[in-house]
Amino acid sequence: MNSLVAPIVTIIAGIAILIFPRLLSYIVAFYLILVGILELVIRMN
């Protein structure tokens, strides 16, 4: 199930960037934090 999270977040971020281009930096930052946390959780298990 974790393998589905990254593509879904990526699609949502892409759509949000198309609709609200000024949010790009926030979306990229949120995505990087989320991916980093998910990788840590996966590697700790």
Give a written overview of the molecule.
There is one protein chain. The chain has 45 residues and is mainly alpha-helical. It has one domain (2-44). The chain is built from 2 helices and no strands. The longest helix has 21 residues, at 24-44.
How many beta-strand runs?
0
**Structural classification:** mainly alpha
Question: Segments where pLDDT lies below 50 for 5+ residues?
Answer: none
What is the end-to-end distance? 14 Å
Strand content: under 5%
Q: Tell me roughly what share of residues is in helical segments.
A: over 70%
Order of helices and strands: HH
Shape: elongated
Q: In this structure, how is the largest beta sheet organized? A: none
- Compute the number of helices: 2
- Counting structural domains, the number is 1
Q: Average the pLDDT over all residues and give the rounded result.
A: 83
Q: What Rg is obtained from the alpha carbons, in whole angstroms? A: 12 Å
Please outline what is shown here:
The chain is mainly α and about 45 residues long. The chain has helices at about 1-20, 25-45.
Descriptive terms for the model:
45 residues; mainly alpha; 2 helices; 87% helix
How are the elements arranged and paired?
Layout: H1 2-19, H2 24-44
Helix pairs in contact: 1-2
